[in-house]
TrEMBL record:
The keyword Endoplasmic reticulum is assigned to this record: no
Protein name in the entry: DUF3443 domain-containing protein
InterPro entries tied to this protein: DUF3443
Region (Disordered): 38-57
Keyword annotations: Signal
Pfam family, one: DUF3443
Length: 429
């Protein structure tokens, strides 16, 4: 997940995502159109690569749920969302369905802002403890941070339901005075739906947990853990946390369709569309609607990264991240926008860039992306779905294939099962 309001938030422990809060002046008349609509005014003498044309399957099976990109909670572009049902452990009645939860293949675990819950359910979600102390979590970004307790809940998405209660994060349920400022917090807190651009984040990338062995081992956890023990709810200090208590990707806890997901988004016009509706499919090769066929498969590191990819002759860490609302990469030849859209690219004409993706299995493929000026795209009016929006990541070592890459594609994620002798993590399209 990579969030962007004004400044780009750099990739951190959970690859945290990108979003731009559009000012109300940008919300005017607008529409969609042909997915290959190369308006001469928009291209301004440049060209874009052909857009992919795959359509999502209908979200009418138990292992599917609709994905919606639209105005959402606060009018932030390219935020794919689903509805998630959260239940108190052991209960089938004390449940609540929460809409506008961002689908994020670049992070791991469910995180929901506390204000989205009714009081009855929130009070019934038990707070996890470590050594008798309340367990909290801090997610830090370049310009802010989130803070809240770790609790357990049963999670249902579409027709899928976890077989047991699992750890999740409640964002913003602890007073700001409890934030351990020396080791968490850089800038302002981001503990509301307005800050996030959604009511929460559904992290369904390749890792089963959000930190892994780094937070299990006391030696590394002392400096790098994002978990904190808070005796009596205060005096919070970094702590090691067993895997079983780390915020968990819900998918591995489904009964059958638990080895991965497919994110399917429709094609959209090169000048944007007001909305887009796709499908999130659970399981890979477990049902007739999720076969792994006709794709290129790239094995990745534990967190879904393709570390040996190449852009502009430089080795980069590439990742396919539905939680980023644009392509983010470093390219000094592309003009950046002014202060109104700081951090985004505003080339004078349409541009194409090509990245070579390289998997740990040595699978290689070229991925060509199109880039239009952000000021042109945002000037189209009330459009919230864009397939050619791009911005600066800072440095030249990473390449973030954000949500624009997903339009017109079926993108597969295989969850890491190597700890149990199973499949290696992978992405495919």
């Amino acid at each position: 997940m990579r969030t962007k309001h004004i400044a780009v938030k750099l990739k951190g422990w959970m690859q945290v995502v990108a979003a731009l809060a559009l000012v109300s002046a940008l919300v005017a008349c607008g529409g969609g159109g042909d997915s290959n609509n190369n308006s001469s005014n928009a291209l301004n003498g440049g060209s874009l690569p052909p857009s992919p044309t795959q359509q999502p399957i209908a979200a009418n099976a138990a292992n599917t749920v609709p994905i919606t990109v639209g105005r959402g909670v606060t009018g932030i572009v390219n935020i794919p969302t689903v509805s998630v049902t959260v239940c108190a452990p052991g209960s089938t009645s004390n449940c609540q369905t929460i809409n506008n939860i961002q689908v994020d293949t670049g992070s791991y675990g469910l995180r929901v802002v506390s204000s989205a819950f009714n009081g009855s359910l929130l009070s019934a979600l038990p707070v996890s403890t470590v050594g008798g102390a309340q367990l909290a979590e801090c997610a830090t970004f370049a310009d802010g941070f989130t803070w809240g307790t770790v609790r357990t809940a049963t999670i249902a998405i579409g027709g899928e339901r976890t077989t047991a209660a699992i750890p999740m994060q409640i964002i913003g349920d602890k007073d700001s005075s409890t934030v351990p400022t020396s080791s968490c917090g850089n800038g302002s807190d981001e503990n509301t739906a307005s800050d996030l651009g959604a009511n929460g984040i559904l992290g369904i990338g390749t890792s089963p947990t959000d930190c892994g062995v780094t937070c299990v081992d006391a030696g590394t956890a002392a400096n790098f853990s994002n978990y904190f023990a808070c005796p009596n709810g205060a005096s919070c200090a970094r702590t090691a946390v067993p895997l079983a208590q780390q915020v968990a990707n819900p998918v591995p806890f489904f009964p059958v369709d638990k080895n991965g997901v497919i994110v399917q988004m429709p094609p959209v016009s090169n000048t944007g569309a007001p909305s887009a509706t796709g499908t999130l499919v659970f399981g890979v090769g477990t049902q007739s609607n999720n076969a792994l066929t006709g794709v290129q498969l790239f094995t990745t590191d534990a967190f879904g990264d393709l570390d040996n990819s190449v852009f502009n002759g430089t080795t980069v860490q590439a990742f396919l991240d539905s939680g980023s609302n644009a392509y983010f990469f470093g390219d000094s030849s592309l003009a950046q926008c002014g202060s109104n859209f700081a951090g985004f690219y505003c080339p004078s004409s349409a541009q194409t860039r090509t990245l070579t993706l390289v998997g740990l299995n040595n699978t290689q493929a070229s991925a060509s992306i199109g880039i239009l000026s952000a000021s042109t795209l945002f000037g189209n009016g009330s459009n919230y779905a864009f397939n050619d929006l791009a911005g600066q990541i800072g440095g030249n070592s990473s390449f973030d294939l954000g949500l624009p890459f997903f339009y017109g594609r079926h993108v597969y994620y295989g969850i890491d099962q190597t700890a149990n002798g199973g499949q290696a993590p992978f992405v495919a399209f």
